[in-house]
Amino acid sequence: MLKHSLTHLCKYLSFPGPAQSQMQVPSGYGLHHQNYIASSGHYSQGPGKMTSLPLDSQCDDYYSGLYAVPTQNVMPPSTANQQAGAQQIYGRGPPAPHLVGSTPGSFQGAASSASHLHTSASQPYSSFVNHYSSPATYSANSSIASQGFPSTCGHYATSAVSNAAYPSVSYPSLPAGDPYGQMFTSPNAPTVRPVKDHPFSGQNTAIGHPLPLPPPPSQQHHQQQSLSGYNTSSWSPSGLPPTNDILIINLLILICMLGCPLQCQSSFSLLMQCQNFISRLSYWFDSCVCAFHFTGMQYGEYVNNQASSAPTPLSSASDDEEEEEEDEEAGLSQVSEESRFLVINTIFLLLLDVLSSSASSPAPDPAPEPDPAPVPAPATPQPSKMAKPFGYGYPALQPGYQNATTPLHSGVQPSGSVYSGFQQCPQYPGVSQLSSSLGGLSLQSSPQPESLRPVNLTQERNILPTAPVWAPVPNLNLDLKKLNCSPDSFRCTLTNIPQTQALLNKAKLPLGLLLHPFRDLTQLPVITSNTIVRCRSCRTYINPFVSFIDQRRWKCNLCYRVNDVPEEFMYNPLTRSYGEPHKRPEVQNSTVEFIASSDYMLRPPQPAVYLFVLDVSHNAVEAGYLTILCQSLLENLDKLPGDSRTRIGFVTFDSTIHFYNLQEGLSQPQMLIVSDIDDVFLPTPDSLLVNLYESKELIRDLLNALPNMFTNTRETHSALGPALQAAFKLMSPTGGRVSVFQTQLPSLGAGLLQSREDPNQRSSTKVVQHLGPATDFYKKLALDCSGQQTAVDLFLLSSQYSDLASLACMSKYSAGCIYYYPSFHCIHNPSQAEKLQKDLKRYLTRKIGFEAVMRIRCTKGLSMHTFHGNFFVRSTDLLSLANINPDAGFAVQLSIEESLTDTSLVCFQTALLYTSSKGERRIRVHTLCLPVVSSLADVYAGVDVQAAICLLANMAVDRSVSSSLSDARDALVNAVVDSLSAYGSTISNFQHSALIAPNSLKLFPLYVLALLKQKAFRTGTSTRLDDRVYAMCQIKSQPLVHLMKMIHPNLYRIDRLTDEGAIHVNDRVVPQPPLQKLSAEKLTREGAFLMDCGSVFYIWIGKGCENNFIEDVLGCPNFASIPQKMTHLPELDTLSSERTRSFITWLRDSRPLSPVLHVVKDESPAKTEFFQHLIEDRTEAAFSYYEFLLHIQQQICK
Amino acid sequence: MVLLTMIARVADGLPLAASMQEDEQSGRDLQQYQSQAKQLFRKLNEQSPTRCTLEAGAMTFHYIIEQGVCYLVLCEAAFPKKLAFAYLEDLHSEFDEQHGKKVPTVSRPYSFIEFDTFIQKTKKLYIDSRARRNLGSINTELQDVQRIMVANIEEVLQRGEALSGSAEIDTLNQKKYSSESPTFNKQHFLSYLG
User: Fold this and answer.
1) CA–CA separation, A124 and A313 (whole Å)
2) Cβ proximity of A304 and A165 under 8 Å
3) What phi-psi label fits residue B54: left (phi over 0), alpha (psi between -120 and 50 degrees) or beta?
4) Which one of A280, A776, B125, B141 is most buried, counting C-beta atoms within 10 A?
5) How far A2 CA sits from the closest chain B CA (Å)?
6) Minimal CA separation from A688 to chain B, in Å
7) Chain A hits for B35, Cβ within 8 Å
């Protein structure tokens, strides 16, 4: 049994283990080269021991050993959907290693072949490539690669291999010079990009390509061999125009064949030419449909294979390594030139086969292909390699192929491949290397080249794409991409991390993370195991991006420490297999949840405790929110998250504080009034927070009575501060959630506030004051609450100024959330009332985590310095979250403290430790992996403009409060000016007359302009102080998806919805109208438009809108009869009504808080609300988009 | 005053249920006691005495072990021992009935945390002196609490290491003593005579 040592006992609620400051890595691991050298020793032993052992037998050995089944188990996801997903991820039995490894090759091939299409465009980008092409890097990489350390090597190899692989792929058509080659496909053939089809390509790509044909293992060896050799040759032609392709190809071939026997050469090149010709015929210029993609993939593979079979004299380091291997393998099987020719031939035939068959057809039987290969040819090093896989590997391949042909499994393969290297290490180090490294190159389904296409902003009239903007996919290999964290949970402003702070400074772009850590997930692997595997020095949780040095050791991807793999981890509960630590769900999923052991608890998990603190002053009763709240509570009482221990309590206040004794056994609730607000005490501490189930009847009685209890009150004062103090006392023994409903300025007792708003200054263009709190009472109280694991959520429902800037502090520092309903009135403002009702439903029933802490770790060299969101920072990287809710977003600013030259990947890990409402202590871990780049162009290529704008918005809020609003506005404008001018300086033919942005940044000026016109930052337009402050609060605490809609609403034309391009959701057809830019120019009088601003929808009806639409959708006979206040669309049995409603419902479902709908008639007074969101247009106080661009251009030229 | 109640599986010290301490308002830091309790659970095994009182300064731990489950309570030293054990017996009978069968199969800490509700109620009965009179078990002197072993918590927690450490010394000493014993006996005999 496990006896935990005392040292494991953690500090209260903090993660056990050393702080991040202790992340120092043992010196030996600091340098990768050293590291690799060290490991190479290990590796070289490997083959000696293992070569003759087929992998299976290896496994058997392990199985046969004594093995106690650990108690760990992984809970399978419950719904059918989840099942399927889970299966995809885990469902595989013990895989044939070769096979797994090989898949990336195929994908890669696809990518690169795709890139052929567009190589013509490569010239402008050639400069970006140089990072990859430096020969020094190559040799280093390739040597590393051949050592066979799966993932780290993979990382390193990525770049190296990509270089190599590209050229090899490019044989058939042409020099696909740059790693971004694939990107070119997107303009011509959007369908090729999986991203476009599946926004969450990370998971979906596999499905998108149902039948990637895994190349036989031999190919991988070839590829590997070729790595170093091709580096040099490959790059030279990259800049050449596409028309020379044949010539180039020949050239390439010749170069590559230098090391080969002459006869082989000739036949080979001949073949290549043929192939090339055919390939071009078939799909070079063609329409690039998906079919192309698939064939391309396969084709690419084969080509890779061929290419790699030719060694180059230049491949020094790797060659040596290979030779060693070859020697070992030599006796087993070798391939002569003839045989190679045969192979090529076969491939060629196969290729034709593939071309003729459709993409969906099963992959051709691999069997014939390998056959010719194993012909003895001792002299040539490659052949032996080729032969090796056939000798052993081929039988093992079979299941893999089957996998590949089954769509269900197709997704599985690639995901495993990174780690497959691990297994193979001892046997075929090369293969493993390759599989992981191959990926590096490429497969970017993300538009790298596209993202660097210079866009002349002033001339591009329609800058806004018609389809929603998705997060760019980091330029990683396919395996890593698949494993990577979903951008919905974790995004970085730069998907290519600059190597040094200097480079980051040059780029003038903000670097930071945007997190949505507790997002509602449909699929989440939950892991119960006795030991949660973590790095011993930096406490990083084991994740998909660690590398396994051997069966028993893994290397931390954050601090590079080598850790032991615990015995328990050797068993995979999903496959019920032993000895495959790399297949554990922790290593297969970048988002997982652990059931924590008691080491992670300093006290028993707390129950769910909910306290409602309600304003019942005259103002509150007049607004009438109590009815809605009590009704909503009554409806959702049984749905409040919690177990049988759930407790609930109520406190009301006006000038006094009222407690309610709800102790089980009472005949009716007892109201206890405490009028001493200067020294608040709890009248009966035991019976105010009561068990929800035992006192349910009393609670219902109270909720039914509350709305009418104060109807005749004349009390106008509000003693909010003392009520909060009482709430704190009530909550402190357990912790939990306090929900405060406030309708006016607190006017009595501690924390009283005065009006600070001067209504005449609302539209001032000068100074906006009072954005910060007037008193530190609320902040102090929040910190006290946070210390007792209590979060305070604020619902402010007021028609007058209530100093939200001060009140918000109670939630900001206690990790609460803030809701604001300006001019709330349950009768006069039905849309707000409806919104409150819907928000409450979500609020009361959504998931909640208690006594939480969140720690964010990042690869050594990076550091976090500023956090945004609602929380209290307990130590440098530990956020204290008394509550965590699924709608909370966070942002972190990063800086690069040490240069990242010795790593090609960086990782970020968020760990959220919380107590679920069922009393389980859980840890949700997200890990994001991003590549490191050394050129400015690559940095620009990887900008995630939405993430950047959200981070900037957060920074601007801080600046507004700490300095001034105008400072913040200037900083926003400067962010655009600086980054665009910095970019301008990188392009050689920079014209000062044009405003050029890389494609990745083309929306940057637009979004910044939108921010400047957002309520939080706008000037010159009348904005109530509370509205502004609330907008700022939202910016700080909303996750990216919702924040983007707040900043830049989506506009759709909805009077002509068609089913074209519609998607199907739950048997409903949801039309997908194109996005319109936010300009009145797009509004035609004949149309009807829907604007999605996140928390509110506007439907604008033009004066000349067709009566058909008005009748069919709005249910009114004509334009004139549309009521002024319309907040619902009637359910009419017409096609257009159905389409419209289905579209709106679909939009609604995508967000947690249901937005209010306003139907706005043209010429109605409400239309100003609508028109203020048309941010591309000029207003009295602000630039139009075009003017803004000119302004930026002017600033740049200064 | 009952301050802390914990229930754990003896086999591996896995905590099964606990009652949230409600005493933070009075400023008492129960953290130390809680970690002592956790340590104690890890020390306990089948050979441990099934009923024991452990002194911890101004506080006292009482525990009983029944069917592989340890029921532990932390009280003020002045709290009657009889009551404490009766309280533990009450918890035992209810817990065993509700969850007894599931105990060997669970792996998650605090799997039966919802038992807290019952603990709290029972605790109230025992703390409230008026309600206490109604407790039949107290009045009928079911057990002789005076015979229950008393020890010090610190000693118990350190015993594990001490024992393993002293084991070697013992063997060494044994040899030493055995070699010396004839002389000693002789001396002793002589002194006896003299």
Assistant:
1) 30
2) yes
3) beta
4) A280
5) 7
6) 14
7) 6, 9
The model carries a pTM of 0.68
Cα(A523)–Cα(A588) distance, integer angstroms? 14
Q: How far apart are CA A1116 and CA A904, in angstroms?
A: 62
Write out chain A residues lying below 8 Å of B114, CB-based: 643-645, 919
Distance between CA atoms of A1119 and A1161, rounded to whole angstroms? 8
Q: Are strands A872-875 and A996-998 parallel, antiparallel or unpaired?
A: unpaired
Query: What is the distance between the alpha carbons of residues A576 and A963, in angstroms, rounded to a whole number?
Result: 59
For the segment A622-663, what is each residue's pLDDT rounded down to a tens digit? Answer: 999 999 999 999 999 999 999 999 999 999 999 999 999 999
pLDDT band at B133 (very low <50, low <70, confident <90, very high): low
pLDDT tens-digit profile of A769-809?
A: 889 999 999 999 999 999 999 999 999 998 899 999 999 99
> What DSSP state is assigned to residue B122?
H
- End-of-domain residue from the set A308, A339, A360: A360
Structure tokens at B186: 């002789």
CB–CB of A499/A223 below 8 Å?
A: no
Q: Which domains does chain B have, with CATH numbers?
A: 2-156 (3.30.450.50)
Q: Which of A213, A212, A285 is nearest to A242 (CA)?
A: A285
A967 Cβ partners below 8 Å, 6+ apart?
Answer: A959, A960
Q: Which of A529, A600, A603, A663 has the most B C-beta neighbours within 10 Å, making it the best mutation to test the interface with B? A: A603
Q: Does A736 map to a domain?
A: yes
Write the ipTM.
0.77
Range of the domain at A547: 526-588
Weakly modelled stretches of chain A, pLDDT under 70: 1-449, 988-992
Residue A27: CB atoms within 10 A of its CB come to 8
Does any domain span residue A956? no
First and final C-alpha spacing in chain A: 72
- A555 and A636 share one domain: no
Q: Which helix (H) or strand (E) holds A926?
A: strand A921-933
Domain boundary among A784, A811, A846: A846
**pLDDT at position B39, please?**
86
Query: Using an 8 Å Cβ cutoff, are A9 and B41 in contact?
Result: no
Helix, coil or strand: residue A472: coil
In a domain, A434, yes or no: no
